[in-house]
Amino acid sequence: MFECCKFNEDIAVEVTSVAQVPYQKLDPKDPQNGLVITFQLPDSSSKDVFFKEKPLGLEFKKSVPLTVNCVRDVAKVQCGWIATHLQGEEISTDLKEATIQLVRHVKDLPVRQRGERS
Questions:
Q1: 25 exposed, middle or buried (CB, 10 Å; 0-12, 13-18, 19+)?
Q2: Nearest to 5, CA basis, from 112, 104, 114
Q3: Residue from 47, 53, 71 nearest 16 by CA
Q4: How far is CA 101 from the centre of its chain?
Q5: Distance between CA atoms of 46 and 92, rounded to whole angstroms?
Q6: With contact defined as beta carbons under 8 Å apart, do 21 and 36 qualify?
Q7: pLDDT at residue 32 in the model
Q8: What is the pTM for the complete model shown?
Q9: pLDDT tens, position by position, for the chain (118 residues)?
Q10: CA torsion, points 75, 89, 41, 93, in degrees to nearest 10?
Q11: How far apart are CA 82 and CA 44, in angstroms?
């Protein structure tokens, strides 16, 4: 398994605030916009989830497609959901490339301050 936005097993990732928003193409280079991750649900429907801070706190299986293995404090995301798009960009079917995409989109998000909940 690997956790969102890391390349080695030494870095833990926690969940931050999440809110559901209608899909809109956001500029991934502007961290003020947050990050929209599109998930495929077990019933084959899709759901966009908006993350405005990091760490995300989603743990993914160490395989593609990026499937949520564990969730910490995020009521809007569930284990078994498959991440399909980041800011409308399709996630690669190559694990290394998918991880790079995820890191690229999350790295500039603001860090949640300890004790804050959004």
A1: exposed
A2: 104
A3: 53
A4: 10
A5: 17
A6: yes
A7: 60
A8: 0.70
A9: 444 444 344 434 443 344 444 445 555 445 467 899 999 999 999 999 999 888 888 999 999 999 999 988 767 899 999 999 999 999 999 999 999 999 999 998 888 877 655 4
A10: -120
A11: 10
| Residue in the block written with tokens 């969940």 | 15
Q: Rounded to a whole number, what is the distance in angstroms from the first to the last CA of the chain? A: 28
DSSP string, the chain: -EETT-SSTT-------EE--------TT-GGG-EEEEEE-TTS-EEEEEE-SB---EEE-SSSS-BEEEESS-TT--TT-EEEEETTEEPPSSHHHHHHHHHHHHTTSPBPPTT---
Given a contact cutoff of 8 angstroms between Cβ atoms, the answer to whether 50 and 60 are in contact is no
Token pair in block for residue 9: 């097993």
Total residues found in the chain within this entry: 118
